[in-house]
Amino acid sequence: EDELNLKTDDAAVETDTVSGMQQVEQSGSQTEQETSEKVAVKSAPMDIDFSQLSCLYVEDQIDSQILFKVQMKELKSMEFVTNFEDAIPLLNTKSFNFIVMDINLPGEYNGLDALHMIRKMPVYQDVPVIAVSAYVLPGDRENFIAAGFNDFITKPVLQDKLYDSLRKIIQ
User: What's the predicted TM-score (pTM) here?
Assistant: First the structure.
C-alpha cells in the first residue's frame, strides 16, 4: 500500500477521554465549570466522528500531504495521490467520505476538471469535495463553490479549517 496511508485508533482514545471527562463532571469530583471548559475544548472537533471517515487527498506537493497526515490523524483512513490520473483507480475501487482536491494539479486534469469527472461517478455525486489552493485571488472561494465544489480552503490545510468546512457541509 501507499507509504502515506494512515489508519489510526487515536480518535477512539480521544472519544473515551471526552466521555470520561463528562462522567467526572456528573460525579462532581471537579468543579462543573472546570470540567465543562475541558469538555468543550476536547469535544469541539468530535461533534462529527472523524474516526469513522475516510478521505482522498489529491495533492502534488509532498509537504502539503505530510502536513495533512499530521493534522488529520483522527481520520479512519486517508489516501494520497499527486494527480487525478492516479486518483481514478482509487475512486473506482475504494469508498471515500470526502475528497480534498488541490486546484493546481500536474497532468492532464486540473482540480476543476477532476471535480467534473468525480461528479459523473454515481457513488461520488453527493460526496463532499473541498477545493484547496495556496494561490488565492479575491472571489476564488465563491467561484470554486459556484463551479461545484462544496467548499474552498486556503493552504495550509489545518485541522480547524477542515473541521469547520466539513461541519458546514455535513450539518
Answer: 0.72
